[in-house]
Amino acid sequence: MSLYNLKFTKKSFKDFQKLKSEKLDNKARKLWTELKNNPRPISSEKLVGNLKGCYSLRINIKHRLIYEIFEDEKIVLIISLSGHYE
């Protein structure tokens, strides 16, 4: 049983379509599964600046999974599946 539920922004859905065309969708799905059980894995990076409060996980050298954790609701909001600066 997962501890957290995932929610997705419209941008993350669009980004996921791009990942599918680059054959990275399975990697993203694997990260989602991990986030349901542990939203702060060792490989995550806490972000600063305009993304303060968010975290990032590497999909590949170009793409990052950017998300925010809502602890009270046990929700992980997937914000983006592109780079930090896109």
TrEMBL record:
The keyword NAD does not apply. Signal peptide: none annotated. One of its GO terms (biological process) is RNA catabolic process. GO terms for molecular function: endonuclease activity; hydrolase activity. It comes from Candidatus Tisiphia endosymbiont of Sergentomyia squamirostris. Belongs to the YoeB family. InterPro entries: RelE/ParE_toxin, RelE/ParE_toxin_dom_sf, YoeB_toxin. Keywords: Endonuclease, Hydrolase, Nuclease, Toxin-antitoxin system. This is Putative mRNA interferase YoeB. Gene3D superfamilies: RelE-like. It holds the Pfam family ParE_toxin. SUPFAM superfamilies: RelE-like.
